Structure formats: C-alpha cells, structure tokens
C-alpha cells in the first residue's frame, strides 16, 4: 500500500481488539482491494491464532486539477 508513487496514504485506522501480550506477534497482510483511484489494505497482528490488533490503510491516487483562475 505504501509502495505506489502515484498515490498518497490518506487514512490509517488502528483497532486494538484486546490486550496485546508482551511476546512475539505474527503479521497477516490482507490483499489490496479497490480500483484505480482508491485502494484499501488490512493488516492484522496475531498472538498465536488470536487477532489482537488490526490496521486499515486507505490510499488515493494523485491527480492534477485544472482550476479556473480567481475572478
């Protein structure tokens, strides 16, 4: 999600689903979903088989705008 030079990360949401233990955690990266202009990706932190945190990232494609001159 962060590797596209034509897009900008516009939102990150982090959910803590329960206590996060002080132990090594596993990472589960979901697929990139969306279209040409907006894409979303989810990542989960796991303690064993249980998800303890989840993060969602939203990226939008950059585009130049042709704005009218100020009147």
Properties at a glance:
elongated; mainly beta; 71 residues; single chain; 5 strands
Distance between the termini: 40 Å
Rounded radius of gyration (Å): 17 Å
Average pLDDT for all residues: 89
The total of helices stands at 0
- The helix content, as a percent range, equals under 10%
Oligomeric status of the shown chains? single chain
Beta content: over 45%
Give the number of DSSP strands: 5
Structural class: mainly beta
Instruction: Report the principal-axis shape.
Output: elongated
H-E string: EEEEE
In the predicted model, the low-confidence regions spanning at least 5 consecutive residues are: none
How would a crystallographer describe the biggest sheet? 5 strands, antiparallel
Task: Outline the secondary-structure elements.
Elements: E1 7-16, E2 26-29, E3 33-34, E4 38-47, E5 50-61
Antiparallel strand pairs: 1-5, 2-4, 3-4, 4-5
What's the gist of this structure?
The protein is mainly beta and 71 residues long.
Could you describe the 3D structure shown?
With 71 residues, the chain is mostly beta strands. The protein is built from no helices and five strands. It has strands at 7-16, 26-29, 33-34, 38-47, 50-61. Strands 1, 2, 3, 4 and 5 form a five-stranded antiparallel sheet that branches. A hairpin with a 2-residue loop joins strand 4 (38-47) and strand 5 (50-61). The termini are far apart.
């Amino acid at each position: 999600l962060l590797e596209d030079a034509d897009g900008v990360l516009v939102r990150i949401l982090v959910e803590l689903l329960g206590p996060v233990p002080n132990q090594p955690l596993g990472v589960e990266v979901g697929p990139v979903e969306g279209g040409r202009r907006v894409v979303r990706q989810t990542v989960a932190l796991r303690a064993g088989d249980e998800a303890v945190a989840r993060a969602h990232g939203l990226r939008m494609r950059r585009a130049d705008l042709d704005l009218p001159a100020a009147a």
